[in-house]
Amino acid sequence: xxxxxxxxxxxxPLTHKRSLSKFRCSSHKLRIEVGRHLNIPRAERIxxxxxxxxxxxxxxxxxxxxxxxxxxxxxxxxxxxxxYDRGMEIDDFYILMNTACERTTRNVCNxxxxxxxxxxxx
Length: 122
Description:
Helix 2 packs across helix 8 (102-121) and helix 6 (73-84) runs antiparallel to helix 8. The longest helix has 20 residues, at 102-121. This protein has eight helices and no strands. The relative contact order is 0.18. The protein has one domain. The protein is mainly α.
């Protein structure tokens, strides 16, 4: 049976709902998607910010942007502090993106909205 995604039915701004929907559907401006449209090999879709600030090569994709990218650490601390206190693995990322908790869903929507806005500004 099909169900409506939780973030679409809670009381948050429409722009934040759109941002999370785009993030989850890979319809955003992170290098993983921009590079795909430009036929750049996946291994070369490196996020320049992490390369220049940490001298580390990271492929810029949703998991990295959401939970590890230093560019978003201030926003992450504001919205995901209770999640980010522990080591995060891909399974934790999936749990976070699909949480049934309304408060966590609201925080994820706000956080992802800020990520999308920063990514679009680059």
